[in-house]
Amino acid sequence: MQDETPPVYEPLDLPHRRDLAPEEMLAEARGFLDLMRQRHSVRDYSDRPVAREVIETCIAAAGTAPSGANQQPWHFVAISDPAMKARIRAAAEAEEEKFYAGGAGDEWLQALEPIGTAASKPHLDIAPWLIVIFAQRWGERNGERVKHYYVPESIGIATGMLITALHMAGLSCLTHTPNPMKFLNDLCNRPEREKPIMILAVGHPAEEATVPAVAKKKKPLPEIMTAYERDA
């Protein structure tokens, strides 16, 4: 983020508060959990259009994410142009061919087998939108390089918020991380200081869409949470 002058600390009164009764808090939490249990990573897309304003609004929501020193080290490139999507698919599949031809190693390929993935990525040009997420490793102020802090953590939070916003808008998405991804800088005309993190294919599921059964097997709460409570 580029500013003319370095920011200074200026405290503001907390502008928004949500003050719910305990039973309301639990109801809201349970309702959100139920909604997120309906989120699916989709590989089969319809070409049904999605308005740009919807995508912009979801990206704006992602842009409200917390970040290290509030440096907001992200950039989102939203693409609906069919020719550009086709170029991204061709470049991504070229890397995926190497991956599935042995570059990944047997252990990784075995781990992916229950997911049903392959080198072919038709969703990259069928889905109406691709969102390419870039991490800004450093910024600029007055022509000077400015270090960014906690970039991977900040990008992870923003990406999670973007995926959630897309789901809340009634859309499906799929994360795609071809390796290496340097080709995305050139295709998206992004500077060297930005590192492509992933591609999100975004749209509506095709009528015949399926999901791998194993993807719906989530770890139970005791496996993902440890609690240390205060004494009553």
Question: What do you see in this structure?
Answer:
By secondary structure, the chain is an alpha+beta fold. It is 38% helix and 16% strand. The protein has helices at 22-36, 52-62, 82-103, 106-112, 123-126, 151-168, 183-188, 221-224; strands spanning 74-79, 129-136, 138-141, 144-147, 172-176, 194-203. The strands form two sheets. A four-stranded antiparallel sheet has the order 1-2-6-5. Strand 3 and strand 4 form a beta hairpin. Helix 2 (52-62) packs across helix 6 (151-168). The radius of gyration is 20 Å and the shape is globular. The model has no long low-confidence stretch (mean pLDDT 94).
Weakly predicted, low-confidence segments: none
Distance between the termini: 47 Å
Spatial shape:
globular
CATH class: Alpha Beta
Report the structural category: alpha+beta
SSE pattern, N- to C-terminal:
HHEHHHEEEHEHEH
Strand content: 15-25%
Helix content: 25-40%
What number is the mean pLDDT?
94
Number of domains: 1
User: What would you call the quaternary organization?
Assistant: single chain
Tell me the CATH superfamily. NADH Oxidase
Please describe the biggest sheet, giving its number of strands, its sense, and whether it closes into a barrel. 4 strands, antiparallel
- Order of strands across the biggest sheet? 1-2-6-5
Number of helices: 8
What fold name goes in the CATH topology slot? NADH Oxidase
State the CATH architecture.
3-Layer(aba) Sandwich
Counted beta strands: 6
What does the radius of gyration come to? 20 Å
